Amino acid sequence: MTWAALVHVVISGLATGSIYALMAISLVIIYNATRTLNFAQGEMLMVSTFVGWTALQVLDVPLVGALLVAVVASALLGFVLERVVIRHAISATHFDVLIITLGLSLMLRSAAGVAWTHDEFPFPAFFGNRPLVVGPVRVAPVSLGIIGASLALMLALGALFRWTRLGRAMRAVAQNQRAARLMGISVERVYSSSWVIASVVGAVAGVLIAPVIFLSSKMGLVAINGFTAAVLGGFGSMPGAVLGGMLLGVLENLAPLYLPASIKHSVPFLTMITILIVRPGGVLGRVARRKV
Amino acid sequence: MRHAALATGAAVVVGWPWAAPRYFVFLASLIAINAIVAIGLNLLSGYTNQLSFGHAGFLAIGAYAAAILTIRAPALPVPAALLLAGLVTAAVGLALGVPCLRLEGLYLAMATLAFGFVVVEAILNLDWLTRGNDGLRVPAARLGPWTLATDTARYYLVVTVAALLIVAAVNITRTRTGRALLAIRESEIAAQASGINLAAYKTLAFVVSAFYTGVAGGLFALVVGFLSPDSFDVFLSVDFVAMIIVGGLGSILGSVVGAALITTLNDSLAGFQNYRPLIFGAILIASMLFMPGGIARALGTIVRPARAAAPPEPPRQGEDR
User: Fold this and answer.
1) Are strands B136-137 and B226-227 parallel, antiparallel or unpaired?
2) Average pLDDT over residues B68-90
3) Which residues have CB under 8 Å from B190's CB, separation 6+?
4) Is there a contact between A103 and B288 if contact means CB atoms under 8 Å apart?
5) Closest Cβ opposite residue B284 in set A31, A103, A235
6) Does residue A282 sit within a domain?
7) Contacts of B48 (CB under 8 A, 6+ apart)
8) Greatest alpha-carbon span in chain A
């Protein structure tokens, strides 16, 4: 294996890793606000990508228009789901909310199958497929595009969390909900905003990855890798989510080179089990011990 | 009243093959198998509050263990094969349960989910043993001089095993162990303060749960007669979770009712594959929002099944960290 080929593998790993990182970020945003894992995250991504694709087909909008439609649709979907279903269960245990999001994911996937069939559809890409040649290294522009767009979105999110009022409120709620409420923060509004922001991040990830893995009702499964990524970096931490996603993407692409090729599908799961067992706090995180 | 209900139930179960068409005998066997899994899962999730999304993986291990045993050692009597299938699965449960002690809530759910995927991948890759995607044909089981070749014979085997395991589960839940498990579910901290060995009991719940599911897997192999990895996908694990959610967390009777309901529903929706998850999802959400204790608690006021019918709502977790 030459180093040039290795660079190629690592870059395509970073590209899938960026998508995992975006999924991980949206899972973490919702977890930080509502203390639950959203099993329906992947299906929400899938549905909004399908809506964008429909706009592309029916209204004949340009690709940017499709992205906008997908983003708006997913924001609406996230808002409505949180407001109509999740909010009613929020006082229950996280166990209950987990089951509810599981039910949502089954329903969304099935509904997408009814509306758009379970077939795979090609999705146009923002970036061309003709490899860019830099010396001996060949890179697919689509990989670079995904990495660049994801990084831009991550920076925007970082700015949002750091410098805006909403971002501060979200961080406060993540740290201690009761204290945040006592400081006059509307925790309910943080719930809503978190679901909307997470859904929007998911929609962007969906439009970015759809050209690579095809658009289908199954594409929501990418959320499992997002969870692995979040765990890998220490669940709850945003930089951890990014690092975990990149790490997982590269790992998944490198593993088949050194291990039997059939291992590729198991990499995320084996990684998840290993990291949970060996270092539940993630590579960055500390092990959270709940004291009485 | 209770004795009369039990006697009627037993009579219906014993008389079923004489009254029902052949297909419904097969369906009843499936219900009994799923009931065993649901009870096993409920001992783990309902009683000890450790949610598992990987029980299809345990079922697969039990099923393949029993199938491979009957193929390699045809002289082995059925009870021994089932027991071994259960023990093999329990050993895997121990191997998974001990490291999972450090995990709770969402993390455990995800680790078990990943476990389910890994089992399917392992079956696909160990094709010298499992024949991978081609599937494994399971020969008819033997019990002494008889071969269990008909649906009725297999039905009676399944029902007998299920009855034994139900009685065992009811007894487990009424002993010191069962109370310890319930205490862990209500509050791990309070349980520990009362001198309950958390690690030991949580591991025990894992092992017993895996054993039940492994035995059910062995029965599944015998009843269905053909195993392939795609019968054990993650949606089967979700079905098992749905059974205990709908039936009632922390209730043995609820597990059986939930298994019967979900299995029948699954079967009657076989012609509407596209809408099945839609309906299942709606059922899951509705039971969580409107019937958190499942059917068992809804019935609880009328029949008063188990003493654990209406445990108080656990407090909200994660409010303060």
Assistant:
1) antiparallel
2) 88
3) B183
4) yes
5) A103
6) no
7) B181, B184, B185, B201, B202, B205
8) 60
Q: Do B320 and A177 touch (CB under 8 A)?
A: yes
> What amino acid is encoded at A229 in this protein?
A
- Cross-chain CB nearest to A110 (options B109, B110, B275): B275
Tokens of A126: 């923002």
Residue B49 C-alpha from the chain's centroid: 15
pTM for the model: 0.85
User: A269 and B277: CB-CB below 8 Å?
Assistant: no
**Residue whose entry in the numeric block shows the structure tokens 């831009």:** A152
Asked if the model's pLDDT at residue A237 lies above 50, the reply is yes
- The answer to whether residue A106 is domain-embedded is yes
- Eight-class DSSP state of A58: I
DSSP A121: B
Domain count, chain A: 1
* Residues B107, A114: C-beta atoms closer than 8 Å: no
- Find the domain containing A102 and state its range: 3-22+31-220
Torsion of CA B219, B224, B226, B231, to 10 degrees: -90
Could B121 and A269 be called an inter-chain contact, meaning their C-beta atoms sit closer than 8 Å?
yes
- CB-based contact, A92 to chain B, within 8 Å: yes
Minimal CA separation from B245 to chain A, in Å:
9
- CB-CB neighbors (< 8 A) of A95 in chain B: 49, 51, 105
Whole-angstrom CA distances from B291 to A163, B248, B287 are 43, 9, 5
> Where are the extended beta strands (E) located within chain A?
132-134, 137-139
Helix H segments across B147-197? 151-174, 176-186, 188-193
A111 part of a folded domain: yes
Using a CB-CB cut-off of 8 Å, the residues of chain B touching A276 are: 99-100, 102-103, 107, 110-111
Residues of A in contact with B281 (CB under 8 A): 102-108, 110
Task: Write the pLDDT tens digit of every residue in A157-213.
Answer: 989 988 999 989 988 888 888 888 898 888 888 889 999 999 999 999 999 888 888
- CA distances (Å), B36 to each of B24, B42, B72, B154, in order? 18, 10, 26, 15
Residue A99 placed within a domain: yes
The token pair at B308 is 């654990």
| From A88, A106, A109, residue closest to B289, measured CB to CB | A88
How far is Cα B305 from Cα B310, in angstroms, rounded to an integer? Answer: 10
Q: How much is the ipTM here?
A: 0.80
**A 270-289 near B (Cβ less than 8 A):** 270, 272-273, 276-277, 280, 288
